[in-house]
Known about the structure:
This protein is 48% helix and 9% strand. By secondary structure, it is an alpha/beta fold. Helix 13 (289-299) links the parallel strand 5 and strand 6. It has an 8-stranded mixed sheet, sandwiched between helices. The chain has 2 domains: 4-114, no CATH class; 175-470, Rossmann fold.
Amino acid sequence: MTNFSQILPPNDVTQAVQVILGESNYNHWRQLMTSYLKIHKLWRYVTGERPKLIKGPDETDSSFADRLEDWDSINQIIITCFTKTSVTYINMLIRKFDAAKEAWDFLAERFKLRIYRYQHLSKLRSIRRKPGQSVEDVFVEMSFLWNELTLLNLSLNMLIVLKANLRLLGTQETESWGQARIFHQLPSGLNMEVIVQKSAKEKDPDGEKSPPLVFVHGSYHAAWCWAEHWLPFFSASGFDCYALSLLAQGESDAPSGSVAGSLQTHAGDVADFIQRNLNLPPVLLGHSFGGLIIQYYIANMRNEPTLEADTSYPKLKGTVLVCSVPPSGNSGLVWRYLFSKPVAAFKVTHSLAAKGFQTSLSLCKETFFSSTMEDNLVLRYQELMKESSRMPLFDLRKLNASLPVPKVTNSFTEILVLGAKDDFIVDTEGLNETGRFYNVTPICIEGVAHDMMLDCSWEKGANVILSWINGLS
């Protein structure tokens, strides 16, 4: 039997490794953890020099079981050292491993790819078509980067970045045509990803200016979900469009802690972007939980900005709630499903809470899309959703305790409540609750599902919204 008193580390790992592993400090954490494991004679388990045991030809079952138990115990102690010195969402990823080497290699591979990701994002941001430079010359400049991206087998999300930059290489000499990715720095110092697509129409300096449109996504999504169809559609209709990725979603930075934020912090980030970047009151559009964030924004609007600029909520031209979580949250939806549609309740819970949509193509389709959606498109969006959320948007217990959102007595913005007939997540009663709360008649669109902006009939919702925006006074 092993003398554990000689090799097991004391409960001082957090004192010896005084770094909590997050998104930006892997190399520092690795150096400290390596030293710690070597001091306690555990390093060879991480390198694989002490692999999983094999029973000897003359060894009794009892003796082998004892040795295997020792080996398992030591590996679990090492993995516990990893989990004690990492943020919650990372230690959740490594708890599944039985061998310390597997967990160590997983972290090394994960952060190696992340470093490559940021390096290539920087390269993509730096490539611009210079005045007088031909498109052919620009493509020659990009060919090496393209080969690197192909060899690295980077995600579809990354390739959307490339797609956006390729659009900038067209025949126009400015970035006002096509999509561009920028990063808005919040007061916290964290950067928020924004996909921008300016109006494709020439602006009349003497004509009435169209309001800018700001899009806020829901859980498991990011700015890319608007960039597929609705940004090009509304850009072609004469609107400047801005799709935000909330913190820890898409390519936005992640805060410390185990969740991306709260209703208050997310709404404050949206307000900060609007206040510091837009000259006209925008129309704010939110999908699913993004709609709930916008409801909190509306509840905190005032006739005049507050004295502290960073905490004010700028005025809006209008608000569009797309398949939005109702003001009371999603608990009412869950209870209704439990009593009226128990099978659907199980599917929704398994799909979203247990993230079953990430591994089941059929469940992903049923949760977010119409039955007629092509499987290759569902698969593409499923992959993007897997990569979009590095942290949950909210702590759901704290969120539900803070709901409903405050009642708006005198709304300072026009509100459109839009739902989908085939929505698997937000039912008709949820849609009607939102309409009653804001004293408006909701519009329910036939033939589309929860992800209205990505569904095969995405233009149905887009046309309704366009008509409504054009009717704003």
